[in-house]
Recover the amino acids of this structure.
């Protein structure tokens, strides 16, 4: 295992050096990983996005057939702007058993470990394929995973199991909430502050919308499913920002609310969206348009990422509990791409090295011990591949 840890750390250093912040290209990192996987004997597909500046990678060891096992990670990282790092965030360094660098735990550590293990997987894979899935733009809406599923649909390929290597301290996670993000735009009529009845104050209507969000926020508590294992057990709503206006004495014609909800069940998402639609169409807009017929309210969908629903039976959970030696599976509050893979028909869990507490922060790190546990799990997976059929 020591050689695998050394090789993984070396590859992780190379991956951290690629500044794959979501607003930049990830192509150089994807090409680097593709070369490593091709050298191990994998068949590699690269699927560019519409801009040609980003791409997903999907690679396969073993036979071309359904039912395979997917090891998945996202290539993008969050920005380092306005964070006080102790060193260059895109230059890895080690201290005290910790490996520092942007993306070290979220989630280039897992990608490095899976890629380094590819030659061993290639030696042992038999009837059940092993796939590698490295996506773009997870941090800004899981757009890469959505596109990858469509690519798999085009290829008429349906893997059976997906392991999403997000940082969980190597705990097996079988469920998390969805993450639905929106920006609601209010278009009113500007005017002088001394004549408020002659304009349509976009900020005031936006605040009424926020008040309705707060009402829904309270109502969602009562809709918590019996026996919900999430913390908190109900669907949550958060108002992240309200912007609008230009001066104290000007009626604001524009306002925007950035908000999100994290549903524990799809019916809650429908409940919130339907309620807000009727509130805007039947109450707010008639009032606004009585003064200014071109007034409008429009909600922009930033992203609607499905949650991971705990399910029975769950082959992915069974496999990962055996590989990690644990006897239970948990749920978490943060979101991942797992629900997208699950919706495509794969049995899916989340399990990877590092702590989510370190993700997105300055001096992000993953411990060498966690990387060792991840490599040990992947080694045991390689043994399983040598005996398993799809």
């Amino acid at each position: 295992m020591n050689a695998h840890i050394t090789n993984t750390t070396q590859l992780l250093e190379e991956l951290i050096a690629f500044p794959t912040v979501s607003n930049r290209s990830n192509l150089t990192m994807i090409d680097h990983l593709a070369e490593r996987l091709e050298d191990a004997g994998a068949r590699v597909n690269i699927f560019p996005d519409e801009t040609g500046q980003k791409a997903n990678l999907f690679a396969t060891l073993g036979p071309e057939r359904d039912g395979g096992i997917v090891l998945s990670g996202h290539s993008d990282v969050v920005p380092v702007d306005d964070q006080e790092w102790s060193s260059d965030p895109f230059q890895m360094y080690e201290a005290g058993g910790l490996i520092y660098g942007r993306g070290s735990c979220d989630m280039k550590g897992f990608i490095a470990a899976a890629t380094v293990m590819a030659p061993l997987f290639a030696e042992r894979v038999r009837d059940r394929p092993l796939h590698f899935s490295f996506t773009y733009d997870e941090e800004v809406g899981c757009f890469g995973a959505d596109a990858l599923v469509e690519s798999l649909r085009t290829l008429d390929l349906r893997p059976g199991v997906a392991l999403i290597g997000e940082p969980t301290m190597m705990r097996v996670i079988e469920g998390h909430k969805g993450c639905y993000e929106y920006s609601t735009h209010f278009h009113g009529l500007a005017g002088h502050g001394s004549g408020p009845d002659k304009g349509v104050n976009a900020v005031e209507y936006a605040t009424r919308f926020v008040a309705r969000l707060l009402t829904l926020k309270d109502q969602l508590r009562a809709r918590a499913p019996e026996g919900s294992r999430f913390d908190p057990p109900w669907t949550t709503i958060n108002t992240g920002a309200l912007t609008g206006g230009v001066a104290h004495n000007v009626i604001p014609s524009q306002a925007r609310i950035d908000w999100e909800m994290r549903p524990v069940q799809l019916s809650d998402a429908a409940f919130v969206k339907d309620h807000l639609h009727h509130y805007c169409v039947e109450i707010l807009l008639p009032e606004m348009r009585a003064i200014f017929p071109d007034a409008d309210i429009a909600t922009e969908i930033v992203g609607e990422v499905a949650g991971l629903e705990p399910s029975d039976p769950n082959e992915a959970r069974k496999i990962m509990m055996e590989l990690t030696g644990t006897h239970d599976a948990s749920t978490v509050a943060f979101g991942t791409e797992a629900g997208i893979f699950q919706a495509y028909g794969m049995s899916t869990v989340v399990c990877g090295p590092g702590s989510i507490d370190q993700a997105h922060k300055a001096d992000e790190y993953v411990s060498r011990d966690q990387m060792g546990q991840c490599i040990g799990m992947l080694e045991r997976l390689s043994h399983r591949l040598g005996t398993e059929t799809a």
